[in-house]
Amino acid sequence: MPHSPELRRQIEDLALRLVVEDSTTGMPAAAWIPALERIRDSALREQAGRVSAAATAILDRMRRDGESPDQENGRIASVFEEGIIRLQQALDLEKQPVAVNDLPLSQDPELLSDFILESREHLASIEAQVLTIERDPRDAEALNSVFRGFHTIKGLAGFLELWEVQKLAHEVETVLDLARNSQLTLTPAAIDVILQGADYLRRWVAHLDLSLQKQPSDPPPRDEPLLARIHSLSGRPSGPPPAPAELAAMAVAVETLPPEEAPEASANPAAPAHAARRNETMAVKVDTAKLDYLVDMAGEMVIAESLVRHDAELGALKSQKLQRKIAQLTRITAELQKTAMAMRLVPIGPLFSRMARLVRDLARQFGKRVEMETHGDEIELDRNIVEELADPLMHMVRNALDHGLETPEERQASGKNPTARLLLKAQHQAGQVVIEIADDGRGLNRERIQSKAIEKGLIASGDGLTDAEIYNLIFLPGFSTAAEVTNVSGRGVGMDVVRRHIEKLRGRIEIRSTRGSGSTFLLKLPLTLAIIDGLVVGVGEERYIVPLFAVREMFRPAQETIWTVQQRGEMALVRGGLLPVLRLYRRFHVTPRSEDPLQSVLVVAEVEGQRFCLLVDELIGKQEVVIKTLGEMFRNVPGVAGGAILGDGRVGLILDVDRLFKEKPGDASR
Amino acid sequence: MPSTMLSMNEPAAASQADARAGKYLTFQLANEEFGIRVLKVREIMGLQEITAVPQTPAHVKGVINLRGKVVPVIDLRLKFGVATAEYTQRTCIIVTQVQGESGSVLMGIIVDGVSEVLNLTAAEIEDTPDFGEAVAGQYLLGMAKVKGKVKILLDIDRVLSTQDLHNLNTIVH
Fold first, then answer.
1. ipTM exceeding 0.85?
2. What is the Cα–Cα distance from B74 to A504, expressed in whole angstroms?
3. How far apart are CA B73 and CA B52, in angstroms?
4. Which residues does residue A546 pair with via DSSP β-bridges, in sequence order?
5. Residue among A629, A633, A645 whose CB faces B165 most closely
6. What single string gives the DSSP state of each residue in A72-90?
7. Which of the residues A360, A406, B56, B149 has an alpha carbon 20 to 30 A from that of B68?
8. What is the predicted pLDDT for the residue at A3?
């Protein structure tokens, strides 16, 4: 939108005057008002909405301040100074082209994505804190934290002209303020309303996110019933919504105050708030590409260090001093690599907190009484894993509340505490992270699972199957024991999807259950998706990495181990069972050192419960490798999952055991 | 292709040639001199051990480790269908930065040897004559005549287009 230089000149004149006039002694507010009014009028004439809104806001503020005679002029000057900065910002924004959609400020993707990021953080913390308040309504610290969350979102939304967001945040903030001043008690119903408010904001944030990615998305409609509910809490009549200009004024007004001194700040001085703020500033947001680069470099350093350490010429020196220095270097490089890898890890706590909300809502919905407990919130996992874990975890928590836990009456009848317990626990175990979802409900019902499985034709009979085998049937596609479809479990997501999710993360899932006293689901996950333990094998001149999680055993076959079936497939006799054999050199068209199986090694691998043998020339060793993508050029090479830098600096290919097994040589040539 | 390189009498389109002027790294392949924009070159390295990737076309030699990054390497002789030759002391890998489907990617090309960096003016660059079907004209930016010698200027983005590889893949399988 083009603007006459007139508007800019007026604003600059004003800024200049502010500098020229001595701002400490200052002048009365009235002296500034005419100039501001002129700016507002020109802005209105030129339809520079942002500038006129900002000007109006400052005018309002100055008039308000001017009415109280004991106001210091210095303060007015500082308000005014900020106002000028805002005017200039507004003018700069006006100059940029306006996108023709419902996002007036979408022309600044950076601001918007900051808003999205920050709002998400605030919403997550709001949710956690609201649940704390529900448990203990007198927790002033939690209340303040929720207030600040809404308050900040409101301020940011005002700046970005997201009026709907700002309005709702403002309304909720009003309710929270009443609660802070002990004029309102937060009943569970009130908590519901606050949470719904947060949900509404989250929908907006999701919409903004989609719009930012240029994907079609409609803004969430104004939720009048919700607003009415909020109003009924704050005791305000649900009057006509304030005009955008008014809201802009509000935003400017509140934003000029530091969050701790928010309007009508409560009696509770915010010592914990200071702590929280300090925490925020101690975290740095870093582009993941930079992190990846750091990890690459650390990996290279480890390789270079190892080349130096094993250098024959240096070794020939037999210098103790040199050895000590190299040992020191080794320690430092190893530490560096570990640190670099750890930077990708995030604590699982926030994910657990998200479940707390789910548990609360579902418990209310099902009329069950549940207390959720979490352990090991500080355990860290790869960011991607934590993100991917959300769906399966949510599903299992739903299942636990829907099917696993009894109603308070049922529990009382069977002599249990009417309040059920749900435990989410994370811990390290043998280089993996184990996540436990444990309830003290009725436990899995072997008979029901068994009869259901027979009815669905999944098994012929349950005879001879262990409890564990029966329980594992619930992971089969098309299995569901829910007697009736509730709106919670009727979403078409079954335990098979949960298992697939977990396996995609290279994890495993196990069930433990005791009839009448509860069931426990154990998720065993790798710490990170960036590293795997690999078995390095050699075929001819090539070396491949077999992911160790898929390897069951390896051995050198004897004469009678390998059998040819109908001159086509080869089978190996392993522990009394026949397993198909895949000669890796044939699949990859590599010249092996020997075609004689007796000179080769069989690696027994397992894919989704099925085993097969890989025939390779030799085993080279076990190595922890950083997984690297082979890039878009090789994204679809059958049987290869990625690459890794081996100890000597060369690239080794990581085998995709799953596809090697599933795509027989015949179908590989699709 | 080699035999057809000599006749170049077409007038250069001045406007296009302007954009093509600049620094080029020249290298040899078979008996030809080729040039690629210096801006596209990330580094030049001696031949090193290449890890073969199974079930890929012959000109895709495999992958190397470039300071922790896995970079694919193409044998340009095989890619252009020129007779293969033994790798020598002069054989090297030019690591280029090309436009992939999702941003820029690093890719190595094996050439017989690098020559020099030339600063080519618009006047020295001419359009590629139409060689007909036999020559892969879409890979060429143009021709340069320097001191009586002809340099073939490659559009390396097109040469190393991965789309091309995927097509080849579907033919192979």
1. no
2. 32
3. 10
4. A535
5. A633
6. -HHHHHHHHHHHHHHHHHH
7. B56
8. 56
